[in-house]
């Protein structure tokens, strides 16, 4: 493989504690019940709006949804680096892929500004393109954001692989028409991933080098 396109949360970065902190800050500010980190882990994977839809009682039907969601976004943009860090081995693997001449990108359902900030902060020398959720483009599992990343990288489907930790990532790769590598250090376990169509699973980041 020559082109590696990565999911962000649960794949490159362990973001769960910061996501849970901002979720609970927003809920607490609105007088709503809070959730455990494990609850939030189950809520993530389809973008932060869907995360808050799952976390807020009655979801989109809650009259305070928009205000609470806005509180989350503001808090998370200010606190997305509090405890977030790459999974062990990720920076070294990305550096080796880059050394081998591979093209690297991030495609996330996290909102665009946060995706860009996290990519610049943690992977300034390895990730060439970082795309997050935007209003004018369909988010994963639609193929649009991955296809946009491929366009920016100047590559096609041949030699491209998508790497993620969730069923959304499996569906995204299928919709793009590229293979998917599912990682087992993220927010979903082996049984879940296999039940949702995973065909290639890895347990450690350095196993990605076997595909390069």
Automatic annotation (TrEMBL):
GO cellular component: a single term: cytosol
Record-linked InterPro entries: HAD-like_hydrolase_sf, HAD-like_sf, HAD-SF_hydro_IA, HAD-SF_hydro_IIIA, HAD_2, HAD_sf, PGP-like_dom2
Reactions mediated catalytically: 2-phosphoglycolate + H2O = glycolate + phosphate
Molecular function via GO: phosphoglycolate phosphatase activity
Pfam families recorded: HAD_2
Enzyme Commission number(s): 3.1.3.18
TM spans (from-to): none
SUPFAM superfamilies on file: HAD-like
Name assigned to this protein: phosphoglycolate phosphatase
Pathway terms, separated by semicolons: Organic acid metabolism; glycolate biosynthesis; glycolate from 2-phosphoglycolate: step 1/1
Family from the record: Belongs to the HAD-like hydrolase superfamily. CbbY/CbbZ/Gph/YieH family.
Domain of life: Bacteria
UniProt GO BP: DNA repair
Source organism (scientific name): Prevotella lacticifex
């Amino acid at each position: 493989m020559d082109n590696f396109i990565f999911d962000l949360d649960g794949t490159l970065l362990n973001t769960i504690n910061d996501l849970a902190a901002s979720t609970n800050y927003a809920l607490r500010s609105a007088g709503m019940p809070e959730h455990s980190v494990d609850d939030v882990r189950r809520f993530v994977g389809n973008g932060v709006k869907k995360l808050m839809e799952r976390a807020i009682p009655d979801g989109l039907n809650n009259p305070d949804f928009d205000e609470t969601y806005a509180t989350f976004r503001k808090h998370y943009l200010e606190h997305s680096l509090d405890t977030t860090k790459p999974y062990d081995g990720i920076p070294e693997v990305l550096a080796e892929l880059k050394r081998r001449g591979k093209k690297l990108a991030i495609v996330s359902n996290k909102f665009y500004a946060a995706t860009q900030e996290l990519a610049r902060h943690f992977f300034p020398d390895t990730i060439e393109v970082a795309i997050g959720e935007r209003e004018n483009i369909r988010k994963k599992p639609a193929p649009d954001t991955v296809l946009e990343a491929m366009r920016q990288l100047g590559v096609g489907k041949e030699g491209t692989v998508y790497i993620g930790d969730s069923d959304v990532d499996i569906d995204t790769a299928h919709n793009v028409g590229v293979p998917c590598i599912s990682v087992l250090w993220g927010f979903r376990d082996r049984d879940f991933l296999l039940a949702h169509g995973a065909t290639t699973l890895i347990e450690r980041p350095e196993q990605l080098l076997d595909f390069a």
